[in-house]
## 1
Amino acid sequence: MKFLIDAQLPPVLKFVFISNGYEAYHTLDLPHKNDTSDKEILELIARENYVLITKDKDFYNSFVLKHQPQKLILVRVGNIRIKELKAVFENNIDKLLHLLNYKDLVIVGIDKIDIKI
């Protein structure tokens, strides 16, 4: 699996995935950085088969209406410190990766990880 972390989330999240042996990028790693349009992001993740990690409800709406992106991790933690957000992912990485093998949408909350059918 390969992951792309959207602009509203900190770049440090990519290292959670990299340290677990996965390919991961942040939008800051793209040519247009955080100015990359949603359309360009959708095209990139479709072409390269990335799982998108975002807080952006527009991507959630696109997933529900068009199943684009193909796989989505929607982050719903409110405003928390970067260190705490990183810990949410580190503490739940195995469960998150397992769920992505079976589900296309995983919702990450502050105290739980949910799936949507």
Note: The mean pLDDT is 95.
## 2
Amino acid sequence: MEKSVIVKNLTKKYKLYSKAREKLLDIFLPKSYGEDFYALKNVSFEVDEGDVIGFLGINGSGKSTLSNIIAGIVPETSGSVETKGQPSLISVSAGLNNQLTGRENIELKCLMLGFNKQQIRELEPDIIDFSELGKFIDQPVKSYSSGMKSRLGFSISVHTDPDILIIDEALSVGDKAFADKCLDKMNEFKDRGKTMFFVSHSIGQMKKFCDKAIWLEFGQLKMYGDINEVIPAYEKFLKDYKGMTDKEKKRYREEANKRRATLDAATAM
């Protein structure tokens, strides 16, 4: 089976500054200012065509950062991501221009994906109908609720038929009926052998929809494999983690970072 996504030693580093002055000094002076923060560090995995993969991890583990890098929205600091075909990210307001109307956003997004005006005219009615936005389609997106933005973004993405679909918490807003309709559409893509990544706090949805799971812990790949193996391990961790005090959580994070640093040093030797 061919690989649709290959991630090798992926690292994303940000700088944290305590003062705005530090950022300017870091730009113009040779000395390094600010604190390095690794949203992802040395993450590697391969995905087969047709895989449906859930991203697991507590807040701040790097799930959205990884989604954005695979989608080509955010550049990596080092490492590489190879994708076979066109990826598309669906998240609340992702890729939408708040100053434009919903209809104008459809046209802009489709033009950016290489569709001509005739193709856009043919797609537009189906996109609008699926979004259920009605007359709001001609209102500025800045007036939309988060659920309405999610509807528009999801509808555009699924109707442009991407090769790789990345859904980042897009079903966590809005009503259940629309979420169910989106899941039906995603299952249609699944039946067609599309590669999909699914980021959600709903483990129940993930169990029903995904075949495999990637568990990220503080920016590092903790576990990758069959959904029925990864989720029970993650649920056990989550139960233990929620029972920790803030001090214990801090200590756990520090120890995890130390283990990661030791592993990185051993790998570099």
Note: The first strand starts at residue 3 and ends at 16.
